[in-house]
Specification:
Elements: E1 11-14, H1 17-23, E2 29-30, E3 33-34, E4 46-52, E5 55-58, E6 64-67, E7 71-74, E8 95-96, E9 100-103, H2 115-127, E10 150-152, H3 158-165, H4 171-190, E11 217-220, H5 223-227, E12 235-236, E13 239-240, H6 243-246, E14 253-259, E15 262-264, E16 271-273, E17 279-281, E18 310-312
Antiparallel strand pairs: 1-4, 1-9, 2-3, 4-7, 5-6, 6-10, 7-8, 11-14, 11-18, 12-13, 14-17, 15-16
Helix pairs in contact: 1-2
């Protein structure tokens, strides 16, 4: 690991469009990672590196970890789908180290490149945002993730050391998680004993429609109530309830972030339209700290919720002016 490697907490800015363009291959990618149209808006600004992306989860098949190199996340910058048919997946954006330059803490923001320079890069990014098919299929960082990564077996302990060495996770916390959560769960997995389950009762619950809108408050129903809405595959009308990550939210209150209508299918690039209610909440993210085989995935995907898994509640009472702010993730 080189001493000048970009690390969490560093302040960075995008290199010039010409410099970035020079790193891209004929497919508009560097190391398999596309430079997307949604990234053009970030020229002329500076950002803080939130995390090095040394591994991600493969959500296609099989579900497992994959090794990624020379990539970071900047703050909570997410794709808005504007260059990909309005996809609403809101994936975090991968930034290759070679697309960034480190800045001094007190340095002024970089100058915004001239329009012609940005336009040249924009043409390349837009030309590669779709696949070469008769039907419309999109190409983005999520659809290309397998080509930008290599398989990472769970027994390779170097992946955990990299998380600590890169500054993503403190050594003490990493050791505690490794000894008391990761290794025990992996051993149970090898013994074919599930590490997390919902109650056995399934099916039969009334599918209440709440018609939730952004900004409304909801409470995640109990595990028993959710289990009654699921089939034998842990799905509700095709939407999977990931118990290891999502069951920890039971009983907690959040605001509705938005209703989802469309996302790109990572395996094919096709745009999928949701036929039933699909809700995104403010706060809960997949942390990668509870999923066997995908430990410490950095993607922080928003879980998708059915209205049947939620119930409408009154807004939390704002705290007095003198009291500390209460997060939306307050348990009840």
């Amino acid at each position: 690991m080189t001493a000048d490697r970009i690390r969490p907490g560093d302040r960075v800015a995008l290199r010039t469009p010409a410099e970035i363009l020079a790193t891209l291959d004929v497919g508009g990618t560097l190391g398999g990672v596309p430079f997307m149209p949604e990234m053009l808006q970030y020229f002329g600004r500076s950002f803080t590196v939130s995390r090095r992306v040394d591994k991600i989860c493969d959500t296609v098949c099989p579900v497992a970890s994959r090794r990624m190199t020379e990539v970071v996340f900047l703050e909570n910058l997410r794709c808005n789908g504007s260059g990909h048919g309005g996809c609403e997946a809101a994936c975090r954006i991968y930034w290759k180290d070679d697309w960034l330059v480190r800045m001094a803490p007190n340095a002024p923001p970089p100058r915004l490149p001239d329009t012609a320079a940005i336009a040249a890069l924009a043409r390349v990014a837009a030309a590669n945002a779709r696949q070469n098919h008769e039907e419309i299929r999109y190409r983005c960082q999520a659809t290309e993730a397998r080509r930008a990564t290599t398989p990472l077996p769970g027994w390779d302990l170097r992946q955990y050391a990299r998380e600590a060495q890169s500054g993503n996770i403190a050594w003490g916390r990493m050791l505690r998680l490794l000894l008391f959560r990761i290794l025990p769960w992996e051993l149970r997995s090898l013994a074919r004993r599930p590490a997390a389950q919902l109650p056995r009762a399934r099916g039969g619950a009334k599918q209440e429609r709440l018609h939730l809108r952004p900004g409304e408050w909801v409470e995640v129903r109990s595990a028993a109530e959710i289990a009654r809405t699921l089939d034998a595959k842990n799905t509700n009308r095709g939407l999977y309830f990931s118990a290891p990550e999502m069951a920890t939210e039971c009983g907690k209150r959040y605001r509705v972030r938005r209703r989802l209508s469309r996302i790109i299918e990572e395996s094919s690039g096709r745009m999928l339209e949701f036929k039933n209610d699909c809700i995104e909440l403010e706060g809960p993210l997949c942390t990668g700290e509870r999923s066997i085989g995908r430990w410490f995935c950095a993607r922080e995907i928003y879980p998708y919720w059915r209205e049947a898994w939620l119930k409408r509640v009154e807004p939390l009472t704002p705290p007095p002016a003198s009291a500390p702010a209460v997060l939306a993730t307050t348990s009840t």
